[in-house]
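Q: Could you fold this chain for me?
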Amino acid sequence: MKQITFSDFEYELQKKRTTSREKFLNAMDSIVPWEHWVSVIEPYYSKGIRGRKPKELKLMLRMYMLQIWFNLSDEGTEDAIYDSRAMKHFLGIDFSEESVPDATTLLRFRHLLEEHSINEILFNDIKERLDKAGLIMHGGTVVDATIISAPSSTKNSVKKRDEEMHSTKKGNQWHFGMKIHSGVDAGSGYVHTITATAANVHDINETHNLIREDDSVVYGDSGYIGIEKREEIQQDDHLSRVDYRINRRPSQNRIASTYTGKNYDKTIEHQKSSVRSKVEHPFLIVKKLFGYSKVVYKGIAKNLNRCYMLFACANLLMCLRAGRREDFCAV
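A: Sure. Below is the predicted structure, expressed as structure tokens.
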């Protein structure tokens, strides 16, 4: 971090309270393993042998994280840093000595991460750190999927929609876009696996890719009814022995109005739902807090690369909220 300027010192004296944005950035800054992440990216980063001198790698990584957390475009990220003192402090930039990296520089850095699938590596790094810290309980997984909308309009230069995205009907409404399928640890709620498909691919088709080797039980909503009969499940020795605890449809739990005893079926379904609900928490963070309810790029691969970082940060945020930062950072 750079030395504090007179303007920053004056601002700190006049500031009445810490804003929500500052609290969030300070919290995330305290838990992200910056040094290790920089070491992962460094072999692929420009050495500055030709052309202009590259920006500091840690600075670019921090700028990219701001783009992820606040769902900004390349140009929007650059503008937001100039407008927000909290973001400026997070980057550690002194405007009297240097300027914010421009949108093109951020674009090239993002393409570097996409080309080498670095976000997936960083997602797995967070998962391994949580595991080593004893914060992930093995043995059970909760599976679910969420739709990420894509522009359905054809009013563009090519007069057509994204060919990799498709439409699906949920309830009485049609959605155009992609699906993110996630496997969440049933004990802790941390995401351990994600995959991406077009929106018209049924949730049940990706289930076998979300189950870990040591899982003995899997929870899911009524969309996964019949999972144990799937060919890819029956032909796999491990998957065929997993206990699939799938919620039944409400219509399957009907009971006569004259019955006065305890409805044990309803109690069992409630217990299943209490475990299954953990899969919704990361989706809430990604779609509501980080604002990723619509795709930002064309193609499933580029959006999946962004989702790896989004869900890695969702795991970090859940770790912070659980008060386990010291356990995580001790690894």
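A (continued): The mean pLDDT is 91.
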